């Protein structure tokens, strides 16, 4: 009788061990491909804001623009890189216009005579949005020194009035006098020139300025 019990216990123990190994009973739950639940394709959690790495597509140019809803007051926070203010990627991840593509550059942003003036929203719309967005970012400085900026500029195919592509950009640190004066604008112009000359693709320029406009030129080896 004792030997029979011992044999039965051995069989039960073996079954339990096999079941434990099959179900991953070591305490780590994994998906069928070996990654932990919630992890991205590389096995690490994606950062907030621009999680997918793909830039959103906005509505594009409109015949009549309306004031866009902005993030709640105080919900957005500036970042600073190299002493320069950057947008909050959760609030302002950027958005591109479906009207501008690599295939139609010559008839859109690179056309003779300009492009941006024909798609820019009127001041009575952006003025209201700017005040609302200033509250979103908790901006309390002089409004005349801050630019209601397209993160991806119009000359780089940014969406004209998508709230994801607009933010109140403070003046550069050490800014003197009155009026808008920031270092992002020259970066946008150099990227536009490079795109129109075929030195970089439209998508590469858009991605570089969305990631960090202070390093965009260096990232694309444009000086």
Structural key phrases:
223 residues, 5 helices, alpha+beta, globular
Determine the number of helices (DSSP H or I, runs of at least 4 residues).
5
> What structural class do you assign from the helix and strand content?
alpha+beta
Q: End-to-end span in angstroms?
A: 87 Å
Mean of residue pLDDT?
Answer: 81
Beta-strand percent range: 5-15%
Main-sheet strand order equals 1-4
The percent range for helix content is 25-40%
- Spans of at least 5 consecutive residues whose pLDDT stays below 50 are 1-47
SSE pattern:
HEEEEHEEHHH
> How many individual β-strands?
6
Shape designation = globular
Radius of gyration: 26 Å
Quick synopsis:
The chain is an alpha+beta fold and 223 residues long.
Description of the structure:
There is one protein chain. With 223 residues, the chain is α+β, with helices and mostly antiparallel strands. Helices cover 29% and strands 8% of the residues. The protein has helices at 2-23, 123-137, 184-196, 202-211, 216-219, and strands at 56-57, 79-81, 84-86, 95-96, 147-150, 166-169. A two-stranded parallel ribbon has the order 1-4. A two-stranded antiparallel ribbon has the order 2-3. A two-stranded antiparallel ribbon has the order 5-6. Strand 2 and strand 3 (84-86) form a beta hairpin. Residues 1-47 have low confidence and may be disordered.
List the helices and strands and how they pair.
Layout: H1 2-23, E1 56-57, E2 79-81, E3 84-86, E4 95-96, H2 123-137, E5 147-150, E6 166-169, H3 184-196, H4 202-211, H5 216-219
């Amino acid at each position: 009788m004792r030997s029979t019990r011992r044999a039965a216990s051995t069989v039960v123990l073996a079954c339990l061990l096999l079941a434990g190994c099959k179900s991953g009973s070591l305490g780590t739950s994994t998906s069928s491909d070996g990654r932990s639940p919630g992890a991205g394709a590389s096995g690490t959690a994606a950062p907030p804001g621009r999680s997918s790495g793909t830039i959103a597509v906005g509505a594009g140019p409109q015949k009549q623009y309306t004031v866009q809803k902005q993030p709640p007051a105080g919900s957005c926070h500036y970042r600073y890189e190299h002493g320069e203010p950057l947008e909050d990627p959760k609030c302002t991840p950027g958005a591109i216009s479906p009207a501008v593509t690599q295939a139609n550059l010559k008839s859109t942003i690179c056309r003779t005579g300009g492009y941006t003036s024909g798609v820019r929203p009127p001041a009575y719309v952006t003025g209201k949005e700017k005040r609302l967005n200033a509250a979103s970012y908790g901006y309390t400085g002089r409004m005349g020194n801050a630019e209601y900026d397209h993160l991806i500029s119009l000359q780089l195919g940014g969406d004209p009035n998508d709230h994801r592509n607009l933010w109140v950009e403070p003046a550069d640190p050490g800014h003197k006098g009155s009026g808008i004066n920031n270092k992002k604008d020259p970066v946008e112009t150099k990227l536009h020139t490079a795109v129109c000359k075929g030195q970089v693709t439209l998508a590469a320029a858009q991605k570089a300025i969305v990631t960090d406009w202070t390093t965009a030129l260096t990232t694309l080896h444009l000086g």
